[in-house]
Amino acid sequence: MSANSIQVGGSHYQVVTGRQHWDLVDDFNVGYLEAGATKYITRWRGKDGLKDLRKAGHFLQKLYEKRALMDFQRQALRMPQVPKMAIQQYVDDNHCGIEEAHIIFLILTWQSTGTIDLARKYINELIAAEEGSEPSSSYVNQG
Description:
By secondary structure, this protein is mainly α. Helix content is 62%, strand content 0%. The chain is globular and about 40 Å long. The N and C termini lie far apart (46 Å).
């Protein structure tokens, strides 16, 4: 039995009919920080919501901080080399929304810290939108 046909805990990957996240990152040697961020962005709607968005943002913050300390030559050695067609197939297979797809593209094709920072900005916008749609702590369900 294939590891892709088994899920340990939860059901957030059961809708995937094509390329799973671990296959994408392993097939293209995606770095740990990019992989963590894209994992949380991919699954946030189906698993832990805002918590996953915040985790994705945290991974990107670390990625930004690490790459900002490098000169361009060292950064170039760490840039992801994921073909755009593979990313498109992945976001389609995983039923990612437009916002998530855009962020995943930015993360898996970054060539400057500015691109990483832009991905962080979009994640923060998703977080702000989600926080605005959640009931406040004073909300009482009267239904």
